[in-house]
């Protein structure tokens, strides 16, 4: 192996730059060149690439997002698009590819692997909805961003005896919502994995209001409802005034936490070592504090198990 | 003078607790008692108060919001309501009142003063729309909260070559929007004090996109339009994909900055000293780094001048 | 079981309050009372305790340190002291005790268990030197505090082409030093578990300086040398000017991160459930994302294994 | 005027990059080129410079330190050195120079002005010891860094009933110490401008300890004593255990606050406009929220007045 490529795809997250840096440094130590593909699979099909030497990845460890940029590409989902991608990789003299992103991005990696091109995936998705890794890249930073915002909102909620419905990311996964509910002492986490009963919630909140509690926080995963709808449904029934905040893209960015910088460094190093040693078609993951390689096939077919212990705990520690 | 009261009213902001602490410590040094009225004018009319000794204000300096809470009261706006408030104050043995809040709250303070009750006001409003003070309490903390969020959003914007419309507070004032635009290097600040031409903005952004710039940030004061409407108007004309984030109540809270803790300490001390020395019907303010007392009458009639230098600078440093 | 007690002992850390809250809420749900012993074993021997109801633990989740306070006690290390502690617990009607702290504190817990008193331990120590738990409470917050400080120092180091020796906590453990070195992109982590060769380091740093690199960061665990001594040894040999910063107690405090709040919530809940179900003489721990109970005997005899993978990675990603 | 140069000198601070960016953008709008001198006067004498176009100053607004770097030069203090600097400037086709730094740096600027070279200065010094500006660049960020650290240390102090002596920067100025004491609720600020009586302090602290207060914080300006010496002097006399933290270079760096980014933007723009309009030998400053130009001669001869109101307030709000 002489030359690797790395690309970031799908939604960006904090830690991607740290993982790129780690992959580059690991490869260079083994005298293997690295190029960075810009704008994900879209850029790959165009051969949009830059050389990544030690200097190119200096000063990026602490920066959010991905300096290689990301983009969507419908064309890459076609067999022709994938074939074209492989041709471009060969034209550029690339022997192996590291793909960093969420499940869509990893499905693309699997397609390239099936077409015979060596690929290793790195799970990066703030929703933490990728199976076969305890944590995906970017989750811990997103959680701490949410924490900071909710701690702020709680101050103002308490000052006005208000309830807040705070919407966080998570289309299919309540991970961010339930963990941040525990971490901020929120009263409820509404998640797509579990039904909830607004009338029961209203009754409990009314009780809380009657007791003289000065605030109530409901963390809502975006996949479990619309914040404003929920606010409208409960606003006349709970005593508290209700306000809504949708945290949005603020959750994605910012300097990565220690956990994400370390995870990124481990993922980048392991993915590079696997690829160089001849392994293809796997995703690196974190399992019991160790690096684990799982066939991309299993990752794509698999489903992340909701953390029942955590979901139950959110209930015990809440209201 | 034997006993002062203090209340917080209107929208809460960071630094209110620090100002309460400072007022209490200043009064106690002069052997004057202090009580805290809970829930603003609403609580005042009910005589809802707690004693504030040194211990009661210990450990609150760094906390956002107001532990005395705030609330709205329509009834207090009537002559009967105001008369009742004064009676309650007298019942509680209170000789003077400190009112902390925005222009509505200060208008209430003026009403009490006109009815003969000694009152001093402290300007607190994250919009920075109160005249006769360079800065109101809470503005600096709100600005730094906005900064943190926009720095995060810029990471993700750059990763996807996106434009973001970010809505900040400011119904009548573009202060937060224009200052945070300068501080974050945003391309535009859309403010209520100035007309803007979306078609011109689109043209400039298209140029920026064509040059290969990887993001564009528009900071919008809530009084200058709706973020989603603006996003819809420009989304097909600028090259960049467009996303929207409404920062909402997150802006209000959080541990106050040094500036707000210091300003709060100065406001609380000065208001207390003025009241004790027999002054009434004024608001304390910050003017050229000094404490200034201005008749509440002038404050209520006055209008905050937009900072033209700053608005112009936002343009020079932008696109 | 009718009444539990909880105490914090040894060096404080962020997350202790969150763990107390979780233990109290868990016990109250099962109709068991909780009292908080103040000032660790010292307070225990005096019966210095407060009642902990839901309200007592409200508003503490996000606060650093321990509101129950901690202290050292030589007397408790004697058989007489331990006997007295048990008598006090019985006087207060306590049927079980949760002890939170580092290895010294857990050794005290084991002593009480051997004397027949039901005890469960929670590992809390920013050094992460306690075996049978992947992470102790407070480590993640300490790491992120270090990260913030080192990111700041790197700015100034780069501005002056300086090397910095930054001393972090860790008398017997290089965990904080090595993880924070990876997370901040430091050139070296000097740890007690591994010998280092200053003349080799000097040679490498001289090379780095010659290449035109604008800074060099050495993270030193306190158990691996004195920062100023190391600075003196290298200052004339590396090209860079050298400066020293000892981060000190700043590392311990501050609002806990999401990770520490979640870990604290899990530890507090699990320790309470174990104690109530009749288990004694164990420490709860985090193992492969699950809660694990290990006999305190094994914990005290055991030794935390250094994370070789991590130590090696620090070398690869460094200079 | 066709080409400006800008350099940063002396101790770095947060906001320098933002000021460089603002100066460059302002000049480019007026079709004037800008070069950046690297490593202050040392680099100037060697002609070590880079071209600064819009792109060169993109993405630096939020970075601490100075990307142009800073350095000390004894040689520049000689007439020969200064002559050489002017020759280099002329060789590089430079018509005017912006110097950013503390009083030593501004004295150098004055020397060049006296030799006939057009120069404008920008005050940058976290000590806030430069006269004729209410605030120097970097002060607000340093204060907020101190705040964060002291808030953390207070958590651990309270957990162990300890007193802390925390040393902050300020060789000749107690500004950082006194403002941060007010902002953190510290009991004492020891500053070079005022004598202090350790025996009186001990007596008061002993009283505080006797009252059962759980911590005491003393903020010490480095020019007012050595932290460890003070700790040794009081440790047996106050009841509290005593610990020491020296915050060090951590104070200098980090992402600048809103205040510093705005101040930097104003300073950079104003300095550039003045130089282009033919003014030389002045320093820009902040006075009553406006930009003020003061002859460098007056700045160098002048002395910053200690803020008596603030120093007194620290006393009132303390113990």
Description:
4 copies of one chain form a homotetramer. By secondary structure, the first copy, chain A, is of the alpha/beta class. The first copy, chain A, has 2 domains: 3-138 and 256-301, Rossmann fold; 142-252, Rossmann fold. Helices cover 42% and strands 19% of the residues of chain A. Chain A has a 7-stranded mixed sheet, sandwiched between helices. In chain A, strands 7-8-6-9 form a 4-stranded parallel sheet, with helices on both faces. In chain A, helix 7 links the parallel strand 7 (188-190) and strand 8. In chain A, helix 1 packs parallel to helix 9, helix 5 crosses helix 6 and helix 6 (175-184) packs parallel to helix 11. The mean pLDDT of chain A is 95. Chains C and D meet through helix 5 and strand 9 of C and helix 5 and strand 9 of D.
Quick gist of this model?
The structure is a homotetramer of 319-residue chains. The first copy, chain A, is an alpha/beta fold and 319 residues long. The first copy, chain A, is 42% helix and 19% strand.
The class by helix and strand makeup of chain A works out as alpha/beta
Hey, which two chains have the biggest interface? A-B, 41 and 41 residues
Average pLDDT score of chain A:
95
What is the approximate shape of chain A?
elongated
Helix count from the secondary structure assignment of chain A: 11
CATH architecture of the largest domain in chain A: 3-Layer(aba) Sandwich
Sheet of most strands of chain A = 7 strands, mixed
Assembly form of the protein: homotetramer
Radius of gyration of chain A: 22 Å
- Strand arrangement in the largest pleated sheet of chain A: 3-2-1-4-5-10-11
What percentage of residues of chain A falls in helices of 4 or more residues?
40-55%
Distance between the termini of chain A: 57 Å
Q: Per DSSP, what share of the residues of chain A sits in E-state strands of 2 or more residues? A: 15-25%
Would you give the CATH topology of the largest domain in chain A? Rossmann fold
Find the count of extended strands of chain A (DSSP E, 2+ residues): 11
Order of helices and strands of chain A: EHEHEHEHEHEHEHEHEHEEHH
How many domains of chain A? The number is: 2
Top-tier CATH class of the largest domain in chain A: Alpha Beta
Which consecutive residue ranges of chain A, at least 5 long each, have pLDDT under 50? none
